[in-house]
Amino acid sequence: MSGSYNELDVPPTLVSFCVGETDTTKVVSNEFKQTNSKVVFLPTKMGQEDILDFEDLKENYEIIHSFIEEGKVLSVSTVTHGGIADVITKSAMGNKIGFQFANNVPDLFYPYYGSFVIELKEGVTIEKAQMLGTTTVEEKIVVNDTVSFELKQLIEMWEKPLEKVFPTRVKTDNKIAKNIISDKTCGITRKMPIAKPRVLIPVFPGTNCEYDVAKAFEDAGAIANMVVFKNLKPQNIQESIDLLAKEIENSQIIMIPGGFSSGDEPDGSGKFIGAVFRNPKLKDLIHQHLYEQDGLMLGICNGFQALVKLGLLPYGEIRELDETAPTLTFNTIGRHMSRMVQTKVVSKLSPWFSGVELGEEFTIPISHGEGRFIVSEELEKQLIANGQIATQYVDLQGNATYDVNYNPNGSIDAIEGITSPDGRILGKMGHSERCYREIEKNVPGRKDQKIFESGVNYYR
Known about the structure:
Blueprint: E1 38-42, H1 54-69, E2 73-78, H2 83-95, E3 98-101, E4 116-120, E5 130-136, E6 140-143, E7 147-150, H3 151-159, E8 198-203, H4 210-219, E9 223-228, H5 234-249, E10 253-256, H6 271-277, H7 280-291, E11 296-300, H8 302-310, H9 312-315, E12 327-329, E13 337-345, E14 361-368, E15 372-374, H10 377-386, E16 389-393, E17 415-419, E18 425-428, H11 451-457
Parallel strand pairs: 3-6, 8-9, 8-10, 10-11, 11-18
Antiparallel strand pairs: 1-4, 1-5, 2-4, 3-5, 6-7, 12-15, 13-14, 13-16, 16-17, 17-18
């Protein structure tokens, strides 16, 4: 890890990563774990006919909300059909944090619907709550001081039944990924200052990240403009192309957000977006936007896939592709991956990374089924020499790896993001737009790569 928890200095607590995706339990070392914290049970009363007492539930919500606002809560989870035992077990497995149950606890397997398990900061109490126990550095769950369950064993029992259907491991044949670092610096500068650059966000059928990126750019000081591409009727397509053309001319930044454009059909992700931007009118305007109007482009996840399908990455222009062109294809593990990953900035060629230091590491969310970057050895050497490989997936020691726990899609040399030759265009798989200050608080690592802020500041 980078040596700090995150912007809020909150270490991983009892409720964090979800188990059942990859083996996320391996990503946090003991030095970052919050242990010896008190965990309590806040019950909600049941009314007539076993229906929740909603006045009591409302009171509990108000208690929890006020404690969170005051910074007194480390983590909170709701109790469902599995009972308290289910909550504690999954939470402990999530960050490999042990738990010692207190004596005289409630029925651990009763479904206390509408009730809460809360991890509190030291010295904090809730009058209505009952003590459940404390977190421990020992990776086990202990009940009645006599019965203990090793977390490693519980995790194996959790993962094994569906390992063949939803695998958590892939064979890497002991491949070693290159640690890439580039001394290239940004060689482009803005032609004229713009206080509030305009960002065009085209919304295609299946796009689902447009609001996140709009907020990220607006928070950074830009004007975000979402344009929906309509395709129900032939005339809608032409109207949408005309509208996109107009907005491209009036924008400083084009941002292609993530999602699943047209359900990733036909035959792979990003092709629908690629087909739209290959329209001769739009193609010419994009080249003009980049090289005559001092424009920038950004594509995240599905947007990254589209930029690669177009040739904008890594070549810097829309062109016909041949068998030597790189691509993004299905994850090695054979399914969609949704989790947090650690990435390192390995080149500052692009203005999109002007706000961070070379070698800085960030913990960001990923969510994709086709994120494996494939490139020929010869072209990869060129990209490295040019400084076009921007970011890599790395492990806890900051090394690029093929380990699926850190490189979730099996990308060649753990490549997560690349740029065009001059850095104007950036494409990456990790959802940098999903990192807000009040979420992922108990996941270690810095989250804000300052990508959106850097893109806006380029024009100031």
